[in-house]
Every structure is written in C-alpha cells, then in structure tokens.
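Could you help me review a protein record that somebody else here produced? What it holds is a sequence and that sequence's fold in token form. I need someone to confirm that the token line plausibly describes how this chain folds. Take the sequence as given and treat only the tokens as open to question. This is what I was given:
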Amino acid sequence: MKFSKLVLPGIAMIATTYGLGRFSFGLFLPNIGRDMGLSASSSGLISSLFYLSYCFTIVYSTLRTNKVGPKNMIMLSGLSVLIGLVLIGTAPNGLMLSLGVIFAGASTGLVSPPYGYTISLWIKWPEQGKANTWINSGTSFGLMFTGLTAMVIFLDWRMTYLIYSVIALIVLIWNFYAIPALNKNIKIETGSLNIRDINTSKKIIIASTVLGFSTAPFWTFSKSFIEHAGNYSNTALSIFWILIGVLGVIGGISGSIIDKQGLRFAYIFGVTLLSIASILLVFTSKVWIIPFIASSLFGASYIFLTGVLLVWGVKIFVKNASLGIGIPFLMLAVGQVIGSMIAGTLIDSLNYAVTFMVYGIVGLVALAMYPKVEVTPSRVENDQEYTKMQQENREVIEQEFNT
C-alpha cells in the first residue's frame, strides 16, 4: 500500500490526539488556572489525569486491537479526543475540566498500538520503522499548531479548544476513509511472550518510566515557569512552545539515525539532550534566550526519544507491534502520572527552578538503561510461518486496493 496513504492521516491523528488533545494543556494552563482559580498542586493533579487515563486505555488498546481491528480502535480514539476537547472548551468547573482531560488523555492510549498494527499489516517491512517514527512525530506538528493558535489574540482558551474539536472531527473522517478495514482473510500473528522477551524488556520498562517521570514538569509547567520569571511577552511564550513542535519534527529522523548509528547511540544521545533541556530551564532568569534553547532541545529530543523507544519496543516484540509500542508508552505515561503530581507539590513547597533541576538530574539516571537488543529483519524473515502469513496478507491487500 502507498506509504503516504497511511502515514499522512496517521500524522494528523497523532497531531490531534497528542498535540491538540494532550500536550496543549500545558500551553493554556496558566490561563485555565487563573480563570478557574487552580493552584500548582491542583493543576498538577488534573494534568496527571491525562497520563492516568492513557495508562488504562493503552492496556485496553494493546490487548483488544487484534480483536476489533486497528481501524475501529483508531475511530474510538478520534471520538474520544473529540469529546475531550469539547468538554475542556466548555468546562464550567474543575470537575468538568477533569472529565475532559480524561477523555483527551484516553485518546492517546487508544491510538498508538493500532497504528503499529496498521503499519505492520499494510507497509512493507523495510519501511515500517520509518513509517512508525514519522507517524510518531505528528505530535510535533500538533504542538506547532497549538503554539500558533495561542498567538491569535482574539481567541481565548475556550474558543481555541472548540476550534480544535472541529479539527478533530475532520481528522476522524479522514482516517475513516484512509485506514483499511480488517479483511477477514488478513491474519494477525501476535506471537507469544517468552522468557527472552520478558528479560529483554526489563530495561525498556525502567527506562521508559524514568523518562516519563523526568519529562512531566516540562510538559505541564514549563510555560508557567517562563511566565512566572517575567520579561517574556505572550508572543515570546508562544514561540517558546512552537519551538518544541518545530524542533520535534527532527524526531522523524530517529529511524534513520538508528539504522546508521545503532539503537544504543540514538538512545544515549536522546536521553542526554532531554535532561539538559530541563536543567537549562533553571537558568531562565539569567539569560533571556535560555528558554528558547531549552524548548528546542526538549522538542527535538523528546520526539526523537519516543521514536527510539517505539523502535526498541518493536524490536523486542518483533511479531507483536502493538505490544512493542504499548509497553514503553504505557510506562512512559506511568512515570508522567507520578512526575506530574510530585512536580506540582514541589513547586508549591519549593520553587520552579529547584523542581526542574531535580527532574533534569533524574532524567540522566536513564542513561544506565541503554538498550542492548539489536534485532534485524532476519529474525522475522527466518520465521517461515510468519513470512508466509505476511505474504498472504500482501496478496489480499493488493487484490483489495490494487496498489
């Protein structure tokens, strides 16, 4: 099947669920907090609901995608983010806001594993890593768009979220027509867990949890930190956020870097830059340009690193793309749940600078969890049964879509 026919709507859906539905909350949190009278602790608690709902839905999605089909799961994700955006935009109080956050966060858990299945079914093996990492970089495009909309002075946060909901509806319809339904003659081989896979996955579980914990305050409180420091206009604050998205597009090349330099190099490179970004933000009050350097580093390294985790997971569970994506992304969210709640409390009791320094140092701990697995396509190709299944699937797809 044509690469762009699946990748482009995939990028749009990831941009909508992760960019508009989930991470935009940190951009608008200062205004939301002022309008609703939320403290840093309350804001951190509500923000943690994004990750908490994600944890539940990514488990559900990982286990159920092969039963209901990837298209149905992607449609459920699109519907969930649509409901979440509408609820956030119309929320009269913290309770309704929290409900909207739960729906918006749930959409991100529902969307990633089925795209892994979709790519494994309809994209040829040599292009699967590239397709997965480019779809994953859709978050960056969503972040860029949210930053641009925040610069439109006549739009308040409520109107902006309602505009996002209209976009979510359009993207949902696009994916409905673009994503193939699961033909009854197409087989999904999910494989089975074995001791080797479990042992190999220990490092990615710990690494993902630590990285999720260390990045939580940047997503939730970085803009609030910069605004609190003073000397930054609304335009500058929006540019700070846009840079996360602009540089995040670089994350789309993580597949190529892994191919050329190896998984271990890509991981260490990404973790180092990600931690430096949080530590740099501590010096915001010293040098005016520091926040923009920090957001650029964070955007590039976060999307890059999630791409690395995605490829790492799929390499471990080579015959179960959904599980390979679901495990690291689940643990990333678990870390962010804990990190977001603790960060709000630390900010209230200490300050922003100390909090970001602590989290940046914690991120460096993940360097000890570098990947050793280097699985090549031969692991799949040597499995005659799996190779035969993939060939049969391609024949069905070629007849169905004439591509």
The two ends are 6 Å apart (CA to CA). Confidence is low (pLDDT under 50) at residues 375-383, 396-403.
